[in-house]
Amino acid sequence: MKFLIALSIAACVLAPSASADTSVDVRVGTAGFEFGFLYSDYYDANERVVREHTEWLSESDFVVALHLARLSGRDLDLLVEWRRGGRSWSDITQRCELTADVYRVDLPRDPGPPYGRAWGYWKKHPKKSIELSDEEIRAFVVLKAMSDFTRKPAAEIVRLQNAGWTPRKIANGKVAHEDAAAPSRGQGKKNKKK
Q1: Are 140 and 104 a contacting pair, CB within 8 Å?
Q2: Quick check: 33 and 39 in contact, CB under 8 A?
Q3: What whole-number distance in Å separates Cα of residue 8 and Cα of residue 54?
Q4: How far is CA 123 from CA 5, 16, 133, 162, in A?
Q5: How confident is residue 192, by pLDDT bands cut at 50, 70 and 90?
Q6: Is 182 helix (H, G, I), strand (E, B) or coil?
Q7: Tell me: the pLDDT tens digits for 140-175?
Q8: For residue 60, what are the contacts with CB-CB under 8 A and spacing of at least 6?
Q9: Quick one: which H or E segment has residue 42?
Q10: Percentages of the chain per state (helix, strand, coil), in multiples of 5
Q11: For residues 145 and 70, what is the distance between their CA atoms, to the nearest angstrom?
Q12: Residue 34: is it exposed, middle or buried by C-beta count within 10 angstroms (0-12/13-18/19+)?
């Protein structure tokens, strides 16, 4: 009995420190998705596939898998299997016969972490590829997807993220801004003509 208690305590204590950059989050039955608006509206993924894969991958890792599946034409299940097997996103990118350039996002100035290291490298060596960490890959993929989805410049997305805006709030701001701004501009023109 003492052995089982000691083993349980050791597992609880050692589990957080054992996670590496290539680890995957094991989560079951996620109630709400942080990037839910991207899955169907941007990546055209059905809910069953999303729920199935986010049981084993963090949402940001799942967004990377969707991104690579779209760019490489590889099967999403294969990419998820590689990730679950402990492969880094950089390794998976190479297995898809792609380079880190597929993650490049043009930003006007150094945005700071987690984008700054790659931004500086690409600025100094525009023709060379770089090996990105999993954190950098996740950040760039989410940034690109958010920028494309909201039709806001990447620098604006970074500014909003740094101001504490969640991905959902940034996406909802897009809808609220477009819905509120378009009629008022049109009405303003009509009122001036009258």
Answers
A1: yes
A2: yes
A3: 26
A4: 54, 36, 18, 22
A5: very low
A6: helix
A7: 899 999 999 999 999 999 999 889 998 888 988 754
A8: 35, 138, 141, 142
A9: none
A10: 65, 0, 35
A11: 12
A12: middle
Helices (H), 19-133: 36-41, 47-54, 59-72, 76-84, 89-95, 116-124
Two tokens, residue 49: 């596939």
Q: What is the CA radius of gyration of the chain?
A: 20
In angstroms, the CA 83 to CA 97 distance is 16
Q: Which two tokens stand for residue 83?
A: 């990730």
**Residue 168 in tokens:** 């959902």
**b/e map 150-183, b = 16+ CB within 10 Å:** bebebbebbebbeeeeebeebbeebeeeeeeeee
Is residue 88 classed as helix, strand or coil in its secondary structure? coil
